Amino acid sequence: HKNLSILSPDQIKLARMLVEAGQSHLFQSWAEPGVEDEEKRGFFEQVARLNASYPGGLTSYIKTARELLADSKAGKNPFDGFTPSVPTGEVLTYGDDNFVNFEELGIREARNAVFVLVAGGLGERLGYNGIKLALPSETTMGTCFLQNYIESILALQDASCRLVQGGCQNQIPLVIMTSDDTHARTIELLESNAYFGMEPSQVKLLKQEKVACLDDNDARLAVDPKSKYRIQTKPHGHGDVHSLLYSSGLLNIWYDAGLRWVLFFQDTNGLLFKAIPAALGVSSSKLYDVNSLAVPRKAKEAIGGITKLTHADGRTMVINVEYNQLDPLLRATGHPDGDVNCETGYSPFPGNINQLILKLGPYIKELTKTGGAIKEFVNPKYKDSSKTSFKSSTRLECMMQDYPKTLPPSARVGFTVMDAWLAYAPVKNNPEDAAKVPKGNPYHSATSGEMAIYRANSLILRKAGGVQIDDPVQEVFNGQEMEVWPRITWKPIWGLTFSEIKRKISGSCSISQRSTLVIKGCNIFLEDLSLDGTLVVNSVEDAEVKVGGVVQNKGWILEKVDYKDTTVPEEVRTRGFRIKKVEQLEKN
Ligand code: UGB
Fold first, then answer.
1. 177: Cβ below 6 Å to ligand 1?
2. Ligand 1 pocket check for 350: Cβ under 6 Å
3. Is 14 or 6 the better-scoring residue by pLDDT?
4. Where are the alpha helices (DSSP H) in 270-377?
5. How far apart are CA 531 and CA 515, in angstroms?
6. ipTM over 0.95
7. Helix axes 97-110 and 272-286, enclosed angle (nearest 10)
8. CA 355–ligand 1 middle distance (angstroms)
9. 574 vs 124, 434, 445, 480, CA distance in Å?
């Protein structure tokens, strides 16, 4: 009360709201008026921000926190009353007629799409010092993830607009969700690279705020250990993307411009855009309100499982069940072995790769009801079994793939399973942890992320172009056993779909295992090419280039690097190799 005199009417309102919500402890050790007044005003600026960035404000946050903490203390199972079963969805096989048709449809729809990249996470499991979007996705071109994503979106835009008679001017919007941890460095990456060829107005950044930490089961907000005039905060999770999009006003602008699809994706999947055209085709032909991309998943692999949940009262939903919850849920519902591989060698529950395609119209309708709020969860680490106090403060969290949880039963929720080699190779684990991944499960490291690109490109040239490509050899990098395929890479503009790539290859082509092929141009046609070494081809936009004949040289060699060798840059040592360029043929 003593400090009221230094506060504005709005600040007094916020103070009253906190006291009424049982938060008077926040003011307990405040100095007398006249002492540290600036810090006190700073406190209210933070409270105003926390209040404004959460749907329903802090009162609502505290109320939900109390409910969820009570449930957690009581050991309430979030899936109470639900029985899991394996859902049915669209299962695609790369290159068959069905797949090719969906790709064609997807390219047609792409000019009506919007891409939303969630990139607010720091990637603690990876332990990389920079932002993950700036990491090279592979070494032959050194393209970072953000560049790869932007060039893929531009290539989609180009391919889609070419289908319109006379062309079209559509620019596919890209939204990037950042956080305080990633915002400035994301802007810097874009600005210092001329937005990788995108119009700056095509890219919008939305920054997520952190949420208040909670000290106890009464949801008392935690005071920052570094300052008594700050509330401690932590990330709220990628689920924030929905409320941010809603409050940005962008959804209606897009809708009015005739756009139809919103595609959400994550920060380090170098294969993703190989799967996008077909997946968008599925959404458009099945008129799915929600379509999640999935891949076959090894039991206990650290990706969520797409599951059908049927409640005792008859309700059903198809939803991601996070990896740490799937096993206990199965054990509690009559599957004593929990999450295990079936006769296919995979878990029967497809793995969620968190690539969601939402139909814009129904999405806006739903968010108008919810304000973009997503069902949250809390995961306190208790001191002991009495569950009365926490080891450290906790907070509410939410995940973007929980969006369907509030949808009415009439919503069309589906999923599309793709080959993992084509669609999913994230970079999440540091080398040490990756080396401990159970044998047969994917490493999800910088090494596996890069090797997966070479494998996918090799398989695509085999399947789409009939190129004779040598089998891979096995090698160990940073304790991880890898298949090493020829290092084949191309700019997205060269070929996004099966048909486009097929059109660019003719005659009898072959590539040896020790080879590297880098294609940096659009109209480059391979004809009777026999490559044993390294070939780099560059071309300007409209040039038509034919590449053929025998190319043989010493090529580029993979040189091993140990991740512990700190004299080597972090991006290089975490992948366990660098490329030594001994000899190549480079044609411009
Ligand atoms: N992210 C944010 O933008 N903000 C945040 O507050 C947190 C993260 P992780 P996670 O398919 O790969 C997810 O940490 O959350 C961004 C799915 O939940 O890499 O452990 C962050 O920048 C899981 O079901 O992944 O697991 C990154 O781009 C599974 O499918 C993205 O969110 C898994 O991803 C994901 O963050 C997967």
1. yes
2. no
3. 14
4. 272-286, 323-332, 360-370
5. 7
6. yes
7. 90
8. 10
9. 14, 11, 8, 11
